[in-house]
Amino acid sequence: MGVLVGKKAPDFSVNAVINGEEIVENFTLSQFEGKKYVILFFYPKDFTFVCPTELHAFQEKLAEFEARNVQIIAASTDTEQSHWGWLQVPKEQGGIKGVTYPILADTNKTIASNYDVLAGTYYYNDKDELCAEGELVAYRGLFLIDKNGIVRHQVVNDMPLGRSVDEALRMVDALQYFEEKGEVCPANWSKGKEGMSATHSGVAEYLSKH
Q1: Which member of 40, 51, 75, 196 is catalytic?
Q2: Which residue has the higher pLDDT, 151 or 187?
Q3: pTM: predicted TM-score of the whole model, two decimal places
Q4: Beta bridge partner(s), residue 38
Q5: Mean pLDDT of 73-80
Q6: Catalytic annotation on 131?
Q7: Which string of b and e fits 88-110 if b means at least 16 CB within 10 Å?
Q8: In this model, does residue 197 exceed pLDDT 90?
Q9: Which structural domains are found in the chain, ordered by start?
Q10: Max alpha carbon distance in the chain (Å)?
């Protein structure tokens, strides 16, 4: 299922921590369909090093995403209790206290598997014993899902490579610009710049100006 762009985003119903403190059951993706855009991003582990920089970076830009009607959701294969514990640790001590968007507890690893971002694999050895190769945690996957529940953008980074939150915001702007104007967004487009008509004449006109 590697590339999900253009396909319906897999739904889920799992435990999550919301508002930085409350553990809830049966948190779903489908609750936002028809209402909000969603950025769902995966990270490998709680209580690590690159991961808190990403979670805090999304929190710092949260108001900008919310102004664009975007719901931010984080996910890892840790438990909801682990998420909750990490949320109690101050930022200066390596924690994520202050993060308020939902964090999913993908402890069964089904969400990461359905989005094809689960590192490591299960296999059976010659004694028919279940084994695992590599850690069964999530890569740094990110998915932009439109209000119809369709994946419109995805990117997957290896564990050591942190993502650009500004790029995620730019992709939201590009999608919403296309939906509003019906024009496509050329290379290095950013909010405030003009798009172009997806025709030969439109491309020629754009290139003549740039």
Answers
A1: 51
A2: 151
A3: 0.93
A4: 71, 145
A5: 98
A6: no
A7: eeeeeeebbbebebbbbbbbeee
A8: no
A9: 13-162 (3.40.30.10), 164-210 (no CATH)
A10: 67
